[in-house]
Write a structure and sequence with these properties.
The protein is of the alpha+beta class. 57% of the residues lie in helices and 11% in strands.
Length: 598
Amino acid sequence: MLEYKAPVRDIKFVMQELLDCESHYQHLGYQDASIDMVDAIIGEAAKLTEQVIAPLNQIGDQQGCTWKDGVVTTPDGFKAAYQQYVDGGWPTLSQSVEFGGQGLPHSLNIAIAELFSAANHSFAMYPGLSHGALATIEAHGSDIQKQQFMPKLVEGTWTGTMCLTEPHCGTDLGMLRTKAEINEDGSYSISGTKIFISAGEHDLSDNIVHIVIARIPGAPQGNKGISLFIVPKFNVNETGGISDRNGVSCGSIEHKMGINANATCVINFDNAKGYLIGEENRGLKCMFTFMNVARIGVANEGTAAAEASFQGALAYAKDRLQMRSISGIKNPEGPADPIIVHPDVRRMLLTQKSIAEGGRALTTYLAQLVDIGHAEQDEAIKADAETKLALLTPIAKAFLSELGFECTSHGVQIFGGHGFIKEWGMEQLMRDAKISCLYEGTTGIQALDLLARKVIGSQGKILKPFANDITTFCQENFDEPKMAEFIKPIMAYAKEWHDITLVIGEKAQKNLDEIGGASVDYLMYSGYVTLAFFWAKMAKVAQDKLAAGTTDSAFYQAKIKTAQFYIQRILPRAKGHAACIENGVSSMMAHNSEDFVF
């Protein structure tokens, strides 16, 4: 069984040393988010995740959720742990004070969310979706809706879901069939079936608030006719109290590859009472508030998976004795050397470490951009942050979920045959992590969003603010000899990023399929370069700390060495993606449908 330890030291490095959260919070008016407060909150979250949440991870996987007559029961220990989570005030952390929250920054909450996800992915999903529901209601709901639903969602006694997918349509939401017919009192009767609804039914909270897309009769076809509704499991009175059961039921729970302790449900709406959020036929725009919050959360899951797998693999690699090092015996007192001395094991461990720590830097940065969107008074600074967030959200979601899954595969591989055995916990991490590549928009959907809608759609303008940050950093450090090994490659790749963007744009003028053919390679290329930038920044901080004198030299030296590994062994992967883009879409589209035979 894995023993999870919260990476507190590295979280503090990213927040306080790399991204200077103290100045960031003071500028934005988060006066309560002092360094002492941040340290205390992270420390308490570490205790809860290590001592309470992580020990339930394997139990949850083994037992799973059970469904009987529409009632879902979570695994042993989950209900008590969730109550402890609520009693500790964790759901309220970054929520509005107006509705009972603590009003702390989103970037502090994302750090805490990583701990919960790494300790127990399934458990973290129950409260995790509530954040998206809250963001959606707060941004688009009426004052009455906010007063009815937000206080209980904020305190965590109610939880939220996102209900998009139907049996016949997944990504293509314009095909939805769920109907919403207006009632005399201004509410709507919602009827239809949704599938793959994470945390759609469970025994952890008193009520579940579903955020549901549906079509009002007479609405335009396709995405232009989608409206968004609040549909609670139990009806809610004007003061926010629970009344009678609504027409919402769980038809079944899915039997899945992973995240078995989170109930993934078929939810049936049978003339359920719902409340329109925002305007009719404008629901997809409102829903993107939920989805963008969720996509940063999924990027965080990729980081968490890499971290959890790295911890398990590292402990095993130090202990497991197999063969002798080809460069000479390293453990003369034992029958063999520990496998950590072998270069290929080092390759896998350092891949995990570089993705976990690089991913942590990226997701924390994204969360700081969210902070700016919420609290910055300067509209130009806010617009700059929103542009960077729009660019980097699909990159982070897809890139980190794909690399997080890869890291869990390395974890299984390092354990060898034992990694394939359930009792060690490594194969569970791999099964659990795969879902992050799929939900909230698959890797392919994120890639199309990035390349077609944002980069090509803006004629490349969306790239400029973040590209300028890379250029500025490289110029500032160009003449520093110790930074040359980082700066020179990043400058070359950043230029190539610009060049391949132009190449795709030119090819797309002749054949629009070139965009679809290049999109995933383009996103992955973008991800590798983005993480290289953050690794260079981390190396710079570490160099400065060592030069100034520190009692923690081993930590900073390891940071520099990991940055070197990333630049030398991970970043070059981007070249393969560039070559695929250059070769174009023709080989993909050469086959007729009839040519695909078996």
